[in-house]
Amino acid sequence: MPAESSGASYAAAGVDIEAGDRAVELMKEWVRKTQRPETVGGLGGFAGLFDASALKRYERPLLASATDGVGTKVDLARKMGVYDTIGHDLVGMVVDDLVVCGAEPLFMTDYICVGKVFPERVAAIVKGIAEGCVLAGCALVGGETAEHPGLLGEDDFDVAGAGTGVVEADRLLGADRIRTGDVVIAMESSGLHSNGYSLVRHVVFDRLGWSLDREVEEFGRTLGAELLEPTKIYSLDCLALTRTAEVHAFSHITGGGLANNLARVVPDHLHATVDRSTWAPGAVFDLIGSAGQVERTELEKTLNMGVGMIAVVPEESVDTALTTLADRGVDAWVAGGIVDRQSTMSTGAALTGDYAS
User: What is the model's pTM?
Assistant: First the structure.
């Protein structure tokens, strides 16, 4: 009988291939739930396949691509041991960037990096991603799980994803469509979404010294539950809006805040104004601002302040747009408008007034 080898091995270096295989088996059922008719093959190949013949119905299809991560929100998921919601955040960050130009999200791939593969944990992360893809109407066609022992702690992980969508060239949304007199419609966020968590963590942990299991009366739940609230996914709502009303542009409110992200879709000769008095940000925004003594300008350029997506529509489409969103369960309201730059002597977008109480 040969003596047991004492040489180096992948397993001795900390990489467990069998655990990785087990994780793939556990996640397969969730990935299957995301499949669209155009999906070819199943999980396990070297590349995900999507039947591009579906694009023949387009006159001039433009492919849109986006990639993103979730940032330091993953640290909260790790600390709470809750792994099946962070995938919603990942999908939302990617697909809602795609839909800004009017593109229908078609498929996504993910990348999960861990210090040690715990199959059930990885499968839970993928479950969340798959559920997010179902909410976005796109397929999860593949991904990668990488084990990085020695670089990450056993419980550490990070996630990233990339998505592809398609839009008819003559239906491309953006700055070129926006006109003076257009109306800015705001769509409520589900909370902090996935931006600004370095500031949030600094305030609640370093300045306040709170624990994640602390019950917070203003939230009606624990601090951890509030901070881990998944990002709202707007893609199907936005696509429905383009079918029922004329839409000139969308703006996904992520890092940089409302004014900076709205400015990205406003042409140089126009200016967008948003009236703060049209809504009241949720309690979590007030907590971070007051407890952290964060100046309003800093708060507004870091957090979404209760608005996750903006639609810019002509005035005659406002009623139809609000009705469509209400029918889909999206809380939305008229928040501002588009004016000529000469009347303001400024560019981009600005917030005016004080928040409603």
Answer: 0.91
